[in-house]
């Protein structure tokens, strides 16, 4: 008997579904792309229970006749490719003809469609890849795809689906991606019977960005004007460096109307900021790239997320130049508004600022003198002694507590604060050499133990005079909702404010944070790394506290004023010599080691 045989059509479709249908958001992506290819001007997406129970896509596109409706359920059946030459210049969103049969093979599927000039439409019911019924139906022109009980016949795949809120967030993100790529199309999304958003078709891309990213981002947009090079063009918008985020979740790149992810473009985008964005952060941007379809291969990834450029260096240079020029123009305008002097070149090749007529040289020199004198006035501080209090979870008698504090005070090392080194380290004289303190690591340890010392009880919070409203991406909102209990225990009071907007009402009293919005957003970026991890409540809170401490210490400044208080707080901690992630907060260079260096 032969060992090799042809897979049955239904099984082959289920195998293909493993590549095309990863989660409910993948189904939405494929179906919306088909609607766009059909010329739809209004696309409505509705889901229930994160898409596991129902995914319904309704469009007003061209629709299909009875014969085409049946044919679209066959594998590799497509109207978008006729010969091999078209494969090298694809102009449509979909083209393989695998999406519909693959989805129908792992769900209870219903297709209702009618052409605009047809009297009646067609309704087809498919269950697990097997056609159950075909009948005439009366409906509006266009198509309606209903996918119920996704993966009902593939339980192993269903187990890999995440929580309902997480799947809903991914679906919402996918719809918003296409809404950005095609701003002229109206997009409506409903979730469990409630309308999340209804975006009217617009010509101005800024309106679509503001409608999805929030009014604050919309006001801060910096336009990247249309730039052409080597037969390619790019235009779009970026946000100033202060809006940079950890990760690339706020970078949206569209190639010929297709959302893509490309590391070369991300690198060029960051290079265009010329170091204004620090390491570990990435700028926020919305870029639309247009080029001849022959210059790009979109058939390199099953889900069509990645592409291969035939001229990658030219694409990177195009994006870099466009972003660099846009930011240069923005900088010049800002300087003019602030009265910052322009820089001109001298004949000898040097440069000098152009001063206003009333600006005197004496004023400039006096500023220099004041700057120098302010530095020389700094004097070494007096050695400081601090004491450590016992953990809050251990309730000892007052006398025992006093004895422990006295003992700890005797064991606390004595330091004489000398100076700062490159605004990064505090230099101190210890009993046996030179001691260096990293303020950021010290602050992390202080904040971390301040959160944990209550034994899991809520941290004292301080109400904001004016609650802060934050508009988030659907996936970021899901991170907050997942960690809501941790936020509350950490003293951050957050409440849903409708849609994807949150309201921050209070912040931890231990933090002197002047910008709650920036703090919470950066904290979310830190938490993204641990999304989906199954951890116990206490361990989850410890990880949350570590991320929170790291974010709280982000803006810690190394300065002599306040160094004594920082040391005092540090040596009240149980583990003052290291940050929560294990890196040292203090290091010592002994006198013997220094003597060896000079011998």
UniProtKB/TrEMBL annotation:
SUPFAM superfamilies xrefs: ATPase domain of HSP90 chaperone/DNA topoisomerase II/histidine kinase, DNA mismatch repair protein MutL, Ribosomal protein S5 domain 2-like
GO MF annotation terms: endonuclease activity
Keyword DNA repair annotated: yes
Taxonomic superkingdom: Bacteria
Alphabetical list of InterPro entries matching this protein: DNA_mismatch_repair_MutL (IPR020667), DNA_mismatch_S5_2-like (IPR013507), HATPase_C_sf (IPR036890), MutL/Mlh/PMS (IPR002099), MutL/Mlh/Pms-like (IPR038973), MutL_C (IPR014790), MutL_C_dimsub (IPR042120), MutL_C_regsub (IPR042121)
Entry keyword set: DNA damage, DNA repair, Endonuclease, Hydrolase, Nuclease
Presence of keyword Lyase: no
Pfam families: DNA_mis_repair, HATPase_c_3, MutL_C
Domain DNA mismatch repair protein S5 per the UniProt entry, residue ranges: 209-328
The name this protein goes by in its record: DNA mismatch repair protein MutL
Taxonomic lineage from the root: Bacteria, Pseudomonadati, Verrucomicrobiota, Verrucomicrobiia, Verrucomicrobiales
Gene it is expressed from: mutL
């Amino acid at each position: 008997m032969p060992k090799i045989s042809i897979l049955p059509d239904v099984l082959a479709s289920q195998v293909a579904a493993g590549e095309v249908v990863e989660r409910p958001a993948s189904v939405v992506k494929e179906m919306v792309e088909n609607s766009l290819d059909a010329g739809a001007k209004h696309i409505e997406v509705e889901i229930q229970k994160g898409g596991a129970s129902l995914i319904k896509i309704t469009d007003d596109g061209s629709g299909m006749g009875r014969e085409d409706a049946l044919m679209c359920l066959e594998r590799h059946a497509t109207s978008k490719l006729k010969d091999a030459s078209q494969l090298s210049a694809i102009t449509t969103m979909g083209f393989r003809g695998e999406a519909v049969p693959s989805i129908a093979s792992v769900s209870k599927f219903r297709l209702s469609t009618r052409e605009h000039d047809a009297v009646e439409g067609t309704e087809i019911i498919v269950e697990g890849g097997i056609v159950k019924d075909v009948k005439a139906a009366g409906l509006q022109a266009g198509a309606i795809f209903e996918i119920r009980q996704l993966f009902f016949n593939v339980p192993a795949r269903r187990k890999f689906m995440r929580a309902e809120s997480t799947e809903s967030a991914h679906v919402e993100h996918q719809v918003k991606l296409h809404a950005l790529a095609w701003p002229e199309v109206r997009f409506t999304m409903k979730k469990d019977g409630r309308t999340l958003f209804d975006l009217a078709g617009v010509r101005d891309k800024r309106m679509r960005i503001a409608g999805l990213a929030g009014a604050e981002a919309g006001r801060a947009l910096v336009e990247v004007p249309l730039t052409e090079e080597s037969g390619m063009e790019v235009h779009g918008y970026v946000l100033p460096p202060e809006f940079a985020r950890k990760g690339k979740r706020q970078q949206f790149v569209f190639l010929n109307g297709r959302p893509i992810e490309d590391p070369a473009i991300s690198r060029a985008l960051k290079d265009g900021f010329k170091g204004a964005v620090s390491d570990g952060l990435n700028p926020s941007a919305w870029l639309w790239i247009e080029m001849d379809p022959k210059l790009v291969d979109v058939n390199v990834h099953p889900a069509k997320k990645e592409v291969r450029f035939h001229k990658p260096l030219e694409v990177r240079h195009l994006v870099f130049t466009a972003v660099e020029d846009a930011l240069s123009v923005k900088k010049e305008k800002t300087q003019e508004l602030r009265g910052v002097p322009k820089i001109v070149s001298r004949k000898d090749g040097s440069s000098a600022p152009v001063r206003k007529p009333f600006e005197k040289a004496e004023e400039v020199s006096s500023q220099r003198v004041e700057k120098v004198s302010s530095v020389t006035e700094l004097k070494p501080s007096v050695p400081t002694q601090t004491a450590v209090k016992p953990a809050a979870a251990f309730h000892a008698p007052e006398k025992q507590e006093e004895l422990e504090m006295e003992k700890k005070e005797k064991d606390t090392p004595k330091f004489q604060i000398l100076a700062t080194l490159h605004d990064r380290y505090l230099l101190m004289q210890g009993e046996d050499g030179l001691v260096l303190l990293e303020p950021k690591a010290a602050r992390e340890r202080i904040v971390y133990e301040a959160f944990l010392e209550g034994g899991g009880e809520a941290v004292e919070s301080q109400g904001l005079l004016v609650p802060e409203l934050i508009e988030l991406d659907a996936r970021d909102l899901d991170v907050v909702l997942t960690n809501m209990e941790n936020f509350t225990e950490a003293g951050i009071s957050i409440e849903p404010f409708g849609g994807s907007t949150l309201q921050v009402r209070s912040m931890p009293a231990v933090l002197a944070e002047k910008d709650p919005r920036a703090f919470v957003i950066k904290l979310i970026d830190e938490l993204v790394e641990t999304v989906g991890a199954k951890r116990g409540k206490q361990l989850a809170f410890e990880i949350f506290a570590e991320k929170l401490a790291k974010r709280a210490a982000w803006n810690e400044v190394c300065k002599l004023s306040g160094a004594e208080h920082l040391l005092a707080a540090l040596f009240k901690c149980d583990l003052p010599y290291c940050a929560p992630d294990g890196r040292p907060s203090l290091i010592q260079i002994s006198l013997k080691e220094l003597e060896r260096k000079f011998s």
